[in-house]
Amino acid sequence: xxxxCGNAVSIIGTGICIPEKVLTNNDLSKMVDxxxxxxxxRTGIKERHIASDNEMTSDLALMAAxxxxxxxxxxxxxxxxxxxxxxxxxxxxxxxxxxxxxxxGASNAGAFDVQAGCTSCIYALAVGASGIASGVWNKVLxxxxxxxxxxxxxxxxxxxxxxxxxAGAVILAKSDGASSRLLSTRLCSDGExxxxxxxxxxxxxxxxxxxxxxxxxxxxxxxxxxVFKFVNKVLPPFITKLCENSGLxxxxxxxxxxxxxxxxxxxxxMKRLSVPSEKAVIDLARYGNTSAASTLIALHEAMKDGRIKxxxxxxLASFGAGMxxxxxxxxx
Length: 332
What we know:
Blueprint: E1 9-17, E2 21-24, H1 25-29, H2 36-43, E3 47-50, H3 57-72, E4 81-85, H4 96-104, E5 110-114, H5 120-133, E6 139-146, H6 157-160, E7 166-174, E8 181-189, E9 197-198, H7 210-214, E10 221-222, H8 224-245, E11 255-258, H9 263-273, H10 284-287, H11 294-304, E12 313-320, E13 324-331
Parallel strand pairs: 4-5, 4-6, 11-12
Antiparallel strand pairs: 1-7, 2-3, 6-7, 8-13, 9-10, 12-13
């Protein structure tokens, strides 16, 4: 069953935090053997934002959270739980969630992190919404935040051109009688493909040592062509099934917010679903791939610029290391 049952859950506020520093494709062409044309043709990305040396993932998450609270018009004391989706925590422990909870002063909230590759934000939204639907929580702050620039090999043109830093946040709340609500979700993974996107060293399998440093094993490693094939095979039927289980068709979805990984992937999946390009929310030209933050940043921008209107059905979908994938349908 894909449908959320119990209490209706709505999005009552959103916020983002984008670092000031901009790294353009032309800037990258001075660092590695690449060009603006090469990057745009293969990814659709023109620039990305990079956190300053003194900015941590928790800092971006905190600022996105404060923005969402202001947008929702509620006090931080009303938050019951903080869930941070991230693959680049400041430290393995403490997690980003507790750090944000402390700095935010959300004294009544619990806090934890979710790490499921770029799909972490969908997983976090599903967990937060389930907690409210079941009556455990009334208001949940969900944040997707990344500082990927610290784990990218800036000498590898196949990966360094893709990623950017940023954070997005939403506040979920119980919404008795409201038409606006999260309708359904579905979460999956294929662990047999876990080698497609990896960070090979730094923990139990390969503790940090001179050899792991010399072999660049503390950076993102990705089999890009295999990821492309996986997503195109798995995501279209997966999304179609979610719509069917939700009593909808693909044509009933007004807006599509895919993980902002690569324009070629987004366009290919949309083509397989027969979705018109004008229905997609795409901002990766400006931000690049911000991993667990990407769909929340795109959702915020589409809600604030008026594209998403009351009653519109919005489908969010993502995929990432694991290989995980997931989707969620929201009626605005």
